[in-house]
């Protein structure tokens, strides 16, 4: 049962899933602890095995709990099991350089799940903050030797948390455990900076996914760098298109300028039209105090239908053409 | 001057639906084509009324003016001061014309990350830096904000390109 959980941990889970899994683990461990007091060596070995796959939130607290349990086990505990109470301190100091504290693991595993229960109800981020606060309060309760070891452990954690995200190895190889492997997993959760950085990175990746939907052809490329290149390329293309079209318009423009004779009329037209942003433009045209030219027939316009626009436009075109032919522009539709 | 009306008719008949953003947290809604069209035509008319080209200058000069007018109208149409890039564009254009544009003050988050980027210039020009150069106003933005602005900018640019293409199609001799 517990081994199965260990295998599950080797997959890459999100923080939320991991917290939920931890909570399950807590319940199971409580169950296990409550059941057997006779199988203390096996129990503790199993717990040690599980330790490697746990988060930092569990590892950093509840040493007092362990002490309690240690005293509870009494003679059984001291007899067959290697990390006895005295040896434990030695263990702690030995493992301070190594990133693992098996003692801490046991503490946390045996800790009650009451601290983790409200976690599942909260937000992911809040949960991690809460557990970090719990760690901090727990630290004060701890034995000094352990606090020293944990303090030594923490700066190492900060250094390596960003380095790799590989899976953990088993706890049984405590001294040979890869320094980077273990801490990366735990460091992801507890360090305030790393959490903030991870949240920021997730925000950025979310927005990049949104961009991916907009920019055509971004689906084939994976990875941030490739997508960014595509996006930059697309923006450059669009800007070049604008430039090209403006050049084209500049070529066509001399023909247009002569057509724009009545400046005042035009501006009045535009102010009227701009007033209604979303409506069809045809709605405003009847309001327009036009007709210094007087030849345009606006009564035939049906403002609310886009399809009927084509009909009046034809009449406009003919009338306008007749109007402008007199000025001999040579401007043709 | 009715050709403008005709063109506007064409735009309204080619009306596209508003682009609804699929992600509700990121709001990049862009107004419809008509708004862009109106602003652009207005700016064009302003251009030509200001400088009546009796003897046409070089086409390049006119092209540049039209391009500037296109960008300014795009910035106005996309929601004047509600987007960082549009404000930066308008500010840039105003500076070129030796005018001063004032916008309503907005809170500016100065992140320590940005200042650290400025200090270390040894970093190779990353993709995000290139993007900052492209998107107006992208010099002092957080990366996540930059992504939002880029998305909105791309939408507006494509809309502006469509409008200009319609205009060119309408005006080109048949």
Automatic annotation (TrEMBL), chain B:
Name of the protein in question: IBH1-like N-terminal domain-containing protein
Region (Disordered): 115-141
Main location as per UniProt: nucleus
SUPFAM superfamilies hit by this protein: HLH, helix-loop-helix DNA-binding domain (SSF47459)
Alphabetized InterPro entries for the sequence: bHLH_AtIBH1-like, HLH_DNA-bd_sf, IBH1-like, IBH1_N
GO molecular function, one term: protein dimerization activity
Subcellular localization(s) per the UniProt record: Nucleus
Domain IBH1-like N-terminal residues, every copy: 36-95
